[in-house]
């Protein structure tokens, strides 16, 4: 059926009414709506309960299969001389060694011995030294502006009393990011060279990004031991996939002329890779590194649950004490660190090669900055031995805004609760509940058929078959109802995020000042742990779907805004010029020229919005939703690995189906643009 | 002068403890700390007691449930607070694996029940009786639950049979489950600030019953038969027509502890704290701003006889 990949332009002359795509979609929607509305009546009429509930007799024991397989892997699996667990424990030790060094230098000082019997043999670096190093890095990577920004970020950490925790978090970032980046680069190069690896890796990367971490937390703890290292491993699993993807893309994107030139001067395969391909792809590769940094900081909270400590732990314990201000301060410390590291890594990506200093001069003269920084580090370290204030930021000089937040929250709560309640009730009644009814009413059998048909129509029979198999897995694991609740909650949230985000993005795309402000807001929302705003949200909107939706929308807004802005900005100015010349009004310019041209980019944004919405599921479970996220969470508390992984896979399958459908749509819309041009 | 006495005392206690530690490992005993104050101070006190007995200890941050994975492999050694009410399933699973052992009761009793703030007594005369609560269920209703009252239950993972209880007692309430206890307390804080109606699941020992004025609802008293046998209780056709059971808080440890630190294992088995002691510790930390270490040190100096008895 190559029909599906045809462009509408070529379809148009065929007049057969059943080939009109809108008719297919209308029919599919009407049928689904009818099934959803009357499924209960059908069940009563035919006395066929299987219509609304998946029959228990058909359910596959996927949970116990997974549990068994994992038990074998963790306890019995062996390579002959040593077991899998020996291997992972060895890896664990290999990661732990550098981590301990970095953490000692930044946070705890160097210790002799373990536990309470340990003695400090050398203290950690002074807070002044760390700040100076960061400032110097900012100056080196770009300019004094960046140096000032980075400096301000680190001073914030000290002044708001977050220093110690922040350094523990920084230590894990300094280990996780290089491992994730180098590992991702290696896998990416391998996939670039060996097509088989590429094909095998793709689904694996999808799973790494979409299966919630809680689902595989317990096996990780068994294999890698309890503590910071297991947290680092979980972080790397989650943060590495974008690096792999970006590497593949970047290497493929190197212009053929450059590769040709490399071949002509007689490069070997290795030289071609490391001297030609990787250097020319470096700017794009740095985008991947930047993603690794961001995702690593996203994992800070979960990592702190399994012994990583640091800022994530501060956020969690503030949450338990209902200390809103404390949570916000620790959360903002994570944002601040993300901002500093993000801007630094971006600056390094764009850094112009510097002019080499005259080699005739002495080393000190050639490297004045390096020498100054080293001098400060050594001086503050030695001075810190006598003057504690130089080593640890004095506690008496720290600030806290905790009381302010407490009062502000109380004021809003007491005075505006009723207003919020009215808004909530309206949105619930006219938007959320109808969507919920529609999705949860769809009988499982028709649901599988409908998603298969939709996927087939958009992306061909392969996609259709994959959608049927994946949704079948969910149904046969007995998770259909929970999956539909997930689809409803994420669907509604994505809709809202998109409706809010795209106009904002268009605005940011046409107005530089708006772009700067919105960019900052969106960055903050994405790196501020959602646990921080969960408490205020629950205080104002109570436990329930609405609170969950707000959390998802806030988090998933970012890509909708970013991609729309990027789409508008990357439109060829000549097209807009042409529109102006032919007398378009501003409205026509937007609707007839800008939006259609930015459509493929916006669809990519939709894709990312869906992915982020799904990755928030575990958080929504905390405000009491009864969806797949809750299933993963329940499995974790009941120590049921199989249940967790099956539910996690179901989340991943929903994500993968959505991803493939939206990508196919984006491809079609791009093809349409090209056919039109 | 006082310093010297303290030194002598420490030296003496070390001397007494030394024989016990002779066969014990000098590796640190890893005690887990979670994200709530009571448990952290509990773990800190146990660590102090073990230190007095000459052991090497280390406090490790770990998630309440995820810690079992570490206890099974020996990466972690001791967990001091496994609540019968919330951690039983995970504990049973771990003990059944043979790698974790139950170290006995921790001395405290977990109480959990429906709870209402004191200002509701005016609007709802007859409280804390459950029938009085039911009579003014409409006071507690919200747009989502109307005409029923809204009861905010604990996370689904806590169990508690509240849906069954409402059904069995014919109560005009709808059970809404919070996903985590932070959400529970956020709602309570919000309602308390506005003096708005709320009835929800609270538990003690915890700082909340100390911070907010209010009481637990009185249901028909719990019995095992009431939960297992429908014919027992007010409703002859349904189980769960009574209040919730109270349960002990357990201590657990890695199964290898008896071999590696036999003396410490004995001390851990004897170690207990009461509800009142815990209540005082938690209030002093969360409400008066005393640091965990100071609170633990205060307990140590006030209860020297108690812990000396565990050590010897």
TrEMBL record, chain A:
Topology in the lipid bilayer: Multi-pass membrane protein
GO molecular function: amine transmembrane transporter activity; carnitine transmembrane transporter activity
InterPro entries linked to this entry: MetI-like, MetI-like_sf
Residues in ABC transmembrane type-1 domain copies: 162-345, 483-662
Any one cellular-component term (Gene Ontology): ATP-binding cassette (ABC) transporter complex
Location in or out of the cell: Cell membrane
PROSITE patterns: ABC_TM1
Pfam family, one: BPD_transp_1
Domain of life: Bacteria
Main location: membrane
TM stretches of this protein: 22-43, 144-163, 169-192, 213-239, 292-313, 369-390, 463-480, 486-509, 602-624, 644-666
One GO-annotated biological process of the protein: choline transport
Gene3D superfamilies for the chain: MetI-like
Alphabetical keyword list: Cell membrane, Membrane, Transmembrane, Transmembrane helix, Transport
PANTHER family for the chain: GLYCINE BETAINE/PROLINE BETAINE TRANSPORT SYSTEM PERMEASE PROTEIN PROW, GLYCINE BETAINE_PROLINE BETAINE TRANSPORT SYSTEM PERMEASE PROTEIN PROW
Similarity field: Belongs to the binding-protein-dependent transport system permease family.
Record's protein name: Glycine betaine transport system permease protein OpuAB
Organism: Flavimaricola marinus
Lineage: Bacteria, Pseudomonadati, Pseudomonadota, Alphaproteobacteria, Rhodobacterales
From TrEMBL, chain B:
Keywords in alphabetical order: Signal
Top-rank taxon, per record: Bacteria
GO CC list: ATP-binding cassette (ABC) transporter complex
Residues annotated as signal peptide: 1-22
GO molecular function terms listed in the Swiss-Prot or TrEMBL record: transmembrane transporter activity
One protein family per Pfam: OpuAC
Xref: InterPro entries: ABC_Gly_betaine_transp_sub-bd (IPR007210)
Stretches assigned to the ABC-type glycine betaine transport system substrate-binding domain: 27-301
Transmembrane feature ranges: none
Descriptive protein name: Glycine betaine transporter periplasmic subunit
Organism: Flavimaricola marinus
């Amino acid at each position: 059926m190559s029909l599906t990949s045809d462009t509408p332009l070529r379809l148009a002359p065929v007049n057969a009414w059943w080939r009109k795509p809108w008719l297919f979609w209308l029919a599919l929607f009407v049928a689904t709506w009818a099934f959803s509305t009357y499924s209960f009546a059908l069940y009563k009429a035919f006395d066929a309960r299987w219509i609304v509930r998946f029959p228990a007799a058909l359910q596959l024991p996927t949970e116990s299969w997974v549990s068994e397989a994992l038990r074998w892997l963790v306890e019995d699996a062996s390579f002959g001389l040593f077991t899998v667990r020996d291997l992972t424990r060895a890896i664990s030790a290999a990661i732990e060694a550098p981590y301990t060094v970095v953490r000692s230098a930044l946070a705890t000082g160097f210790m002799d011995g373990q536990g309470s019997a340990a003695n400090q043999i050398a203290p950690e670096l002074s807070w002044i030294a760390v700040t100076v190093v960061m400032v110097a890095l900012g100056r080196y990577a770009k300019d004094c502006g960046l140096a000032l920004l980075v400096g301000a970020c680190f001073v914030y950490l000290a002044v708001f009393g977050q220093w110690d925790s922040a350094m523990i978090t920084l230590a894990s970032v300094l280990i996780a990011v290089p491992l994730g980046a180098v590992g991702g680069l290696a896998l990416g190069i391998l996939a670039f060279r060996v097509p088989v690896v590429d094909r095998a890796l793709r689904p694996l990367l999808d799973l790494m990004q979409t299966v919630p971490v809680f689902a595989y937390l317990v096996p990780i703890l068994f294999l890698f031991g309890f503590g910071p290292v297991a947290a680092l491993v979980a972080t790397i699993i989650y943060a590495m996939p974008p690096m792999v993807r970006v590497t593949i893309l970047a290497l493929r994107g190197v212009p053929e002329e450059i590769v040709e030139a490399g071949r002509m001067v007689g490069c070997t395969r290795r030289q071609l890779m490391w001297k030609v391909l990787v250097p020319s792809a470096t700017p794009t590769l740095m985008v991947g590194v930047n993603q690794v940094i961001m995702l690593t900081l996203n994992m800070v909270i979960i990592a702190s649950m399994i012994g990583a400590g640091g800022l994530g732990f501060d956020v969690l314990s503030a949450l338990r004490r209902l200390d809103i201000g404390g949570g916000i301060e620790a959360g903002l410390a994570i944002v601040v660190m993300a901002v500093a590291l993000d801007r630094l890594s971006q600056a390094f990506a764009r850094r112009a090669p510097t002019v080499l200093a005259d080699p005739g001069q002495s080393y000190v003269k050639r490297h004045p900055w390096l020498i100054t920084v080293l001098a400060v580090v050594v001086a503050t370290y030695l001075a810190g031995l006598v003057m504690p204030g130089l080593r640890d930021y004095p506690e008496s000089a720290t600030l806290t805004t905790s009381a302010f937040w407490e009062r502000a929250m109380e004021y809003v709560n007491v005075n505006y609760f009723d207003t919020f309640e009215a808004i909530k009730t309206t949105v619930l009644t006219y938007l959320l509940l109808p969507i919920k009814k529609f999705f949860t009413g769809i009988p499982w059998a028709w649901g599988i058929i409908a998603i298969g048909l939709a996927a087939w129509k958009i992306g061909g029979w392969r996609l259709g078959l994959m959608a049927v198999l994946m949704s079948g897995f969910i149904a046969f694991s007995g998770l259909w109802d929970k999956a539909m609740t997930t689809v409803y909650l994420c669907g509604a949230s994505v809709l809202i995020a998109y409706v809010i985000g795209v106009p904002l993005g268009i605005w940011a795309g046409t107005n530089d000042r708006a772009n700067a402000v919105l960019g900052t807001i969106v960055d903050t929302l994405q790196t501020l742990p959602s646990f921080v705003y969960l408490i205020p949200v629950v205080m104002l909107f109570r436990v329930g779907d609405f609170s969950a939706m707000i959390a998802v929308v806030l988090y998933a807004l970012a890509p909708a805004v970013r991609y729309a802005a990027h789409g508008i900005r990357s439109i060829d100015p000549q097209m807009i010029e042409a529109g102006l010349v032919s007398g378009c009004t501003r409205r026509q310019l937007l609707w007839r020229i800008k939006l259609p041209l930015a459509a493929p980019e916006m669809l990519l944004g939709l894709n990312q919005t869906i992915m982020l919405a799904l990755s928030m599921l575990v958080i929504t479970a905390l405000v009491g939703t009864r969806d797949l996220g809750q299933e993963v969470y329940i499995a974790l508390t009941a120590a049921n690995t199989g249940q967790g992984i099956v539910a996690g896979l179901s989340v991943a399958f929903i994500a993968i189906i959505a991803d493939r459908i939206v990508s196919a749509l984006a491809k079609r819309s791009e093809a349409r643009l090209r056919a039109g041009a | 002068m006082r310093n010297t006495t303290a030194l002598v005392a420490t030296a003496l206690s070390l001397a007494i403890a030394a024989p016990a530690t002779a066969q014990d490992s000098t590796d640190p005993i890893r005690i887990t700390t979670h994200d709530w104050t009571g448990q952290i101070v509990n773990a800190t006190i146990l660590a102090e007691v073990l230190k007095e007995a000459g052991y090497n200890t280390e406090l490790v941050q770990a998630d309440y449930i995820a810690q079992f994975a570490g206890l099974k492999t020996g990466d972690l050694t001791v967990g001091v607070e496994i609540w019968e009410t919330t951690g039983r399933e995970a504990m049973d699973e771990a003990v059944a694996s043979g790698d974790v052992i139950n170290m006995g009761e921790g001395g405290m009793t977990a109480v959990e029940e429906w709870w209402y703030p004191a200002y509701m007594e005016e609007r709802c005369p007859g409280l804390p009786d459950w029938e009085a609560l039911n009579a003014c269920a409409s006071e507690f209703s919200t747009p989502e639950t109307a005409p029923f009252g809204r009861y905010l239950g604990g996370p689904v993972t806590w169990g508690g049979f509240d849906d069954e209880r409402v059904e069995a007692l014919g109560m005009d309430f709808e059970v809404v489950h919070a996903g985590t206890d932070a959400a529970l307390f956020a709602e309570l804080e919000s309602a308390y600030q506005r003096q708005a109606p709320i009835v929800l699941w609270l538990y003690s020992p915890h700082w909340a019953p100390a911070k907010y004025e209010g009481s637990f609802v009185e249901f028909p008293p719990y019995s095992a038969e009431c939960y297992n046998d429908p014919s027992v209780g007010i409703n002859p056709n349904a189980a769960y027509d009574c209040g919730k059971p109270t349960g002990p808080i357990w201590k657990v440890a890695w199964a290898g502890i008896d071999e590696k630190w036999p003396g410490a294992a004995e001390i851990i088995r004897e170690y207990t704290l009461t509800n009142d002691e815990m209540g005082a510790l938690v209030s002093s930390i969360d409400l008066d701003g005393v640091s965990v270490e100071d609170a633990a040190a205060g307990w140590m100096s006030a209860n020297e006889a108690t812990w000396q008895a565990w050590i010897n």
